[in-house]
Each structure stands twice: as structure tokens, then as C-alpha cells.
Model the fold of this input.
Amino acid sequence: MTGATLVVVLFSFTSHAAMLWAPAPAKHGHGGHDRHAAKLFKLIDGQGASVQLINPQLKSMEMAIEQGVVKVKSTGMDNYHALVATRSGNGVNESAIRYVYQFGKPSGESPSNIMGLEKSKLEIEPSPYAREHWRYQSGTEARFILRFDGKPLANMEVEFTTSNGSEKKVKTDLAGRFVVDLPRDFAEVNAGRMANHPAELILTAGHSVAGERHLTTFSADYHVNPDNWQSTQLGIAAVAGGSLLAGIILLALRRRENR
Amino acid sequence: MPFWKNLSVIRKIVQLLAFVFLVYGSVFVGFYSADKISGAFPALACAYDAKTADYCVLIPLQHQFGHLLGPAISAGVFGLSVIMPIVTTLVSFLVLFVLLNKAFCGWLCPLGFFQEVIGMIGQKLRINRSESLDSSLIDRIRPVKWLMLLFLVILFPLASGLGFVGHELGDPFCKICPSRILTSLAAGQLNQLYIDTSSIGFMILSIIADTMFGLILVLSLTMRQPFCRICPMLAMHTVFKRVGLVRLVKSYTSRCDKCGLCAKACPMDIREIHTSKEKDILFPDCTLCGRCVEFCPDKGVMALKYVTIPIKVSDPQYFKARNKAQKAWEGKKPASRKRGMV
Done:
């Protein structure tokens, strides 16, 4: 799925939802190997919102938004940055949060700092978020915490949707934690990681306090599970084959020694 | 012999603690610490393990050659953004390496520990062990670690970055590394034990990885540390070994010529430690396990030192007690002592 069609799909199936971040199609295609290239994100349903980029050292900078798109250039600092859109009016406080990995000089900070930072009153914190060699994948679990005023929110409903059309509701436990089973909902799966485009997962939560409505979304990409082209059964068979081969080698060596 | 005086037992305890830290450490120090602590650990601690607390230098090196240096050479654009990550990785490696030298292999590497544990199981199962490999076979095996470093860690990733070979060879050592399978299995993941059918290249690499893991599992029962002998980390350590603070030294005596117990005790079959007349006997295959010092029967002939401070010096009393403890561990009768292996 290209970035353009992804945005169209997100528009169509989240028409009832709060504002959210989605990857925007790049104007000029590139090989995808320039790790310092700017990344574009579209703020869907985000008219009138203000946008900030928070770096791993928790310093924030205002971001310009043009035609609903924000261009996140390299900050020269390594690790996760938070892209935060906020909007208030008519008794509704909205936020949309997305984490963007940037390459650069080591920040010296743990990503837990930026994940744990209170970026809006109501917030969905990935717990944990992916780190190097890890990513959200279909057929796996993703864990989160729902917070309000920095404290966990128990027994709240969170709406989970994907750009592939899956929908479900999950509930937070007493510690505000909830687990999402990422669905195997890719219509077409090709062999190989590079042969499949990621889809988007969106979590939406709402909470009302003292006549004020709070809405927040968290979005991230998730990928086709490699177990579609990686067979554990065959892997175990190959290990067994290697063990058998070792046994044969040892027997041959023993026989030679005995002779 | 009390266990706290037995260097091999102390080493096993250190290895066990290192294994727990390197395989499950993020439970104690936080999930993201693997990205934070160094990324240049001088032993095979795998980033594919979801609970690891630190990871091996070979991962960033391959990625930097493949994703930074190769494309930069292709584009003819060099800058600090290309050079600095590689320099940072190597300097971080060097700082950690200086502290412990090649002892990262013998004392901290999770795969080294795993092979030793399998070997101990083999001993307890009374599987007839090949304590030493044939010297001609050892000579043939020794260059392999250099080829692994040169081709799998440097040249193939670089060639992949330059576009000469496919991206399957972007991080080929990780693709075949048995520690990737071991540490992820130990962390309760099956997702690194697979045959990848997405391309011929990935399929071949995954078959090599799994078959080699099976070979190591069985060979370790009867042969000491089979993978260590071809590990590129050993070769990488050798490049820098002169700057490490842990030293293995020998004061040659004429009795050394007749003895040879040190070479027999060496799990890497370094026969040169027995014949060498040099003071510095830190050979390329050495993992600084210290067994040669333990099994040297002459006072002060061999020593493991931290700069100039002796950590362990050979001693006849220790040798006798250690040899007895070894026989007791192996369940051998006293009559077999004279010809028994150490």
C-alpha cells in the first residue's frame, strides 16, 4: 500500500475518530536508505491544532504544519522523538501522539523518559515501544498504559483500529495497562520483509472529567509477521540435521582413533 | 578444595551472572538499556534477544559498513556522519576491551558459557571426550576466524552497501550467528530459529545458522568450545590485544619442555603456551580463561595479571588441589590420575 492510499484509507475508516498522525507520501521517492532524510507526517482531522516535536532530552520545538503535513527533519540527535499535536475548544481537549525514530549523535537518554513524559492530560503510553531489531508485527501482542494526569486509568475502554480495516475494543486493567493482539489482517503478503509495506495501528481513548472531554490517539506502523516466510518447524529440522551430522562426524573420528 | 578458591568455579559463577545479565538483563535495568549501554559489547550478546541488556559490537559494525560506508563510497560523499559512527563503535569497543582484554570471551560471552555448560553435561554423561583436537586440524581451523571477520563482518556488508551483492549479505554474520539462536531461545523466543524461504540467499544463510547450531549442540558434548575456534570476535580481540590490561605471562623454565599440562588444560588447544619461551603468551586463540595457570604445577611460572597485579599465579599446592577437584568432578578413580586429562 502506498503512502497516498494509506492516508485515503485512514481518512475513510477514522471519520468518526479524533485527530491522528499517519505517514504522508513523500513528494520525491527515494531508496529509503537515507537515515537522515526528513520524514513527512499527515495530521488527519487536525485543523487548528498546534504541533510540537519533543527530542529525547525532552526539549520541545514548535513545528510548522502545511496543508495538514508536518516535515520532521533530523535533529542531529539519536533515538525516539515525540510528535505531539494538541487542540482545545468547546470543552474538548484533543491530542495525537506518534513516536519518530531519528538517527544522529547519541542522546544519552533512555526512550522511557520520552514515553513516560506527560505530553497531554489523557495519553496512551507504549509500554514498551519497539527498540532496535524490534517492531510491531501482526500476530504479536503490543502493550500500553492509559494515563490521565500522569496516573494510570483503570477499567477504561480503548478503541483499536487498523488501516487494514480491523476494529476492536480493549479494556484497561487496574494498573491502566492493556494489551492489543495485532491482527493478521494484511490482505496480501509477499515473501520477505522488504516486499511488504507496513500498515497503521491507531488507538483512541476518551475520558470526561468535570465537564471537560479529553480525547487522545496513538498511532504507529505495524508489519507483516515474518513467520509467513520463516518456518520454525524447518528451523528445528535443520538443527536436528546439524546434530545428526555432528554425531556422524564424531563417530567417524572415534572409529579413526580406534583404528 | 573450597569452591571459592577454584578459579574455574569462580569463572563459571561470573559467566552465569553475565549470561543472566546479557540474556535477561533488561528486566533489571530497563527495556531500552540495550540501545543505551554500549552497543559495542566485546562478546556475543544478541540484540535479537528481547530481554537483553547490552549487545555485541558485530551488529553495529556490520550495519555501519552496510548502511553507511558502502552507500557513502557509492555516492562519493564522505563526512563525519559516515566516519563518526564507525569510530564511535570502535572506540567504545576499545574502551570496554581495554578493561578486560580477551577475558570478554572466556568470562562473559553467553555462547562461550553455553558451550562450556554443554561440555560439563557431556562430562557428567561420561561421553568419551576429545580433550584435544589433532594439531593439523587445529592449524587448518585457526585462519577461519580471520576469514569470518574479514568476509562476514566487513567485506560482505560493505559489498552489500555498495550494491555488489544482495541485502541478504548486509549483516551475514548475524544471520549465521549461533548466539542469536541461543540467546533468543533462552529468552523464550522461537522467532530466531527458522528457515527463511523469502529468497535463496536468506534460505542458505538460515540453513547454515540452524545446522551450525545443531553441530555446536552435539560437538560441545565431546569437544571443547567448537564455535569459539572460528568466532570473528576472537579475531577482532586479537587485533587490539596489546592494549588490554589483562595479561597472560610466563616465566619459561627448562621443566616446561617436559611438562605440557598447560597446553592439555587449554580449551582452545593452544599448544604454543607449552613450548613458548616468550613472556607474553596471550596467543590469538586465547580466551583468558586461566586454566593453563591453574594446571601449571610450577610455582610462579605462569600468571594471569591485571596490568602488573597478579590475579592468579601458578602454584604447586593449588595445582594438586585443583587436579584432585577435577578428578572428583569427572568421577575418575585416583588410579587414572597420571594419564588423566586436566
User: Anything to note?
Assistant: Chain B touches chain A through 40 residues (CB under 8 Å).
